[in-house]
Specification:
The complex is a heterodimer. Chain A is mostly helical. Chain A has helices spanning 17-21, 26-44, 48-65, 73-94, 97-102, 104-110, 116-144, 150-179, 185-196, 198-208, 222-247. In chain A, helix 2 (26-44) packs across helix 7 and helix 4 packs antiparallel against helix 10. The radius of gyration of chain A is 22 Å and the shape is elongated. Chain B has a domain at 88-148. Classes of the chains: A mainly alpha, B alpha/beta.
Chain lengths: 249, 225
């Protein structure tokens, strides 16, 4: 069935400025999205406090579960990284929930913005959340579990922390965008992300172990830091390449 | 060239056909009103035109661009008002509109102008979750026209609005807003008065397609029986 009606005289178009404005620069869009993201988190406090609380609770559980007041070496590194990884899953699971539930995806898709802006803004937000959580979790770990003095490990910990956070951010943002559109998003997120993040835990723990030895901090093996950096690069590129398709119908 | 050209448009959700064999042409500055019972495909049609859903068959052209291949060219040129307001509940009305203004590179002065024009300037700093449904709809109208789009896609835009609110939003999304419009409605007389072309959907198929002036409200009512 088809029908055509006569086109009336052109209506006075009030201001077709949208066409003239063109595409919003990606940097401006990322800044707008990140500002919104942080503002929503500050209002709701749904992600960071939960992540920090889970870290602290897990350290307490390890403290009693292992029946040891102090850890060192590979055991200390393993406890630290597994705990941080599980805490990060809470942030990953919540990353796109407000957008999915309140129509933010549709609003974003209608805007003249490169879709990569959303990936970058979400990744930046998740990275910030992880760094804030670690500001609480690492001192708590030192206080509750770590045998050797934390002072010897702290400067060296910065590099593996940042590199591991970047890996968690790349994989977490990708998986969160995928999982949020499924019914079982709370399950799908960790189910996909945790196996993908095994190399991050492995490399970060191996890189950190020499810093946490009871006999004093030793030099970190550079190959594990390199492994983390390579992982970040590969998954960063994968996230960049496929993120557009995740937003498609 | 028409603002919207559909030829044999079809869209499925799995096995179920939400839209089938839909062809029409709508000129620039004209209004298409879409009637049909719940589940007839009205919202699906709007989402396809908004580039939020891909057409599965047929050809679709919006503002001179083929969908889905040229959907990118339409971003920022469409104002979409769906069932959801597309606003963040934890942010204030002003923060929400400023966020959208940043994404669309619209001036903040436009935000203030719109808040004032729908009577929300005093509630602008309150979280959206505290607003009534009618206020939320007024704010959603502001969000939809913030970037001064050429095409308005309006899904039951006047629901939840009292007569005073209707008067407030009419200059923004009403017949004389000067934009090409596609709107859905369940009110035959009001919908026909708004439109140049009327489309009635039943089960995803066009059951009625005629110039609005030639359609009787009773014909529209029959779609719902």
């Amino acid at each position: 069935m088809s029908v055509e009606i006569p086109t009336p005289a052109p209506a006075p178009h009030p201001a077709p400025h949208a066409r003239a404005r063109g595409q919003t620069p990606t940097a401006a869009a990322v800044a707008a999205l990140l500002r919104k993201e942080l503002r929503v988190e500050l209002r709701t406090l749904e992600s960071v406090p939960a992540m920090a609380l889970l870290s602290l609770t897990t350290f307490v559980l390890f403290h009693f579960g292992l029946n040891r007041s102090s850890l060192d070496g590979d055991l200390a590194a393993g406890v630290l990284w597994v705990t941080l990884l599980f805490a990060s899953m809470l942030g990953v699971n919540r990353l796109f929930v407000a957008d999915e539930e309140e129509g933010g995806f549709d609003a974003f898709l209608l805007a003249p913005v490169d879709r990569t802006a959303l990936l970058l803004a979400k990744a930046a937000a998740l990275l910030l959340y992880l760094l804030v959580v670690e500001l609480v979790a690492v001192p708590a770990f030192a206080l509750l579990l770590l045998g050797p003095p934390v002072g010897q490990a702290l400067p060296g910990l910065l590099a593996p922390l940042v590199l591991a956070d970047l890996g968690v951010t790349a994989v977490g943002t990708l998986v969160a965008a995928l999982a949020v559109r499924t019914r079982a998003r709370d399950l799908i997120g960790p189910l996909l992300a945790l196996p993908l993040l095994v190399p991050v835990v492995l490399a970060a723990a191996r890189a950190t172990t020499p810093l946490l030895l009871a006999s004093g901090a030793h030099a970190m093996p550079g190959r594990w830091l390199l492994t983390l950096a390579l992982y970040d690069l590969v998954f960063g590129l994968i996230a960049y390449a496929v993120f557009d398709f995740l937003l498609e119908d | 060239m028409a603002a919207i050209e559909l030829d044999g448009l079809a869209r499925h959700y799995g096995e179920r056909a939400a839209l089938r064999e839909l062809s029409l042409s709508l000129g620039h500055g004209q209004t298409l009103v879409v009637f049909g019972p719940n589940g007839a495909g009205k919202s699906t049609l709007l989402r396809v035109l908004a580039t939020l859903l891909r057409p599965h068959a047929g050809s679709v052209s919006v503002l001179g661009h083929r969908l889905p291949s040229e959907g990118w060219a339409l971003r920022g040129r469409i104002g979409f008002l769906g069932h959801e307001p597309l606003l963040y509940r934890q942010l204030t009305a002003r923060e929400n509109l400023r966020f959208h203004a940043r994404l669309h590179r619209a001036p903040f002065a436009r935000v203030e102008h719109l808040l004032a024009s729908v009577g929300l300037e005093r509630r602008g700093d309150e979280p959206v979750r505290t607003l009534s449904r009618g206020m939320l709809q007024r704010l959603a109208v502001c969000r939809a026209v913030l970037h001064e789009p050429e095409l308005l896609l309006l899904d039951e835009p006047f629901s939840h609005l009292d007569p005073a609110a209707l008067e407030l939003v009419d200059p923004l999304i009403g017949r004389f807003a000067g934009r090409t419009r596609v709107l859905t409605s369940h009110h035959p007389a009001d919908g026909l008065a708004e439109a140049d072309l009327a489309l009635g959907l039943r089960g995803g198929r066009p059951a009625l397609l005629a110039p609005a002036g030639a359609v009787d409200a009773a014909e529209v009512q029959s779609l719902y029986r």
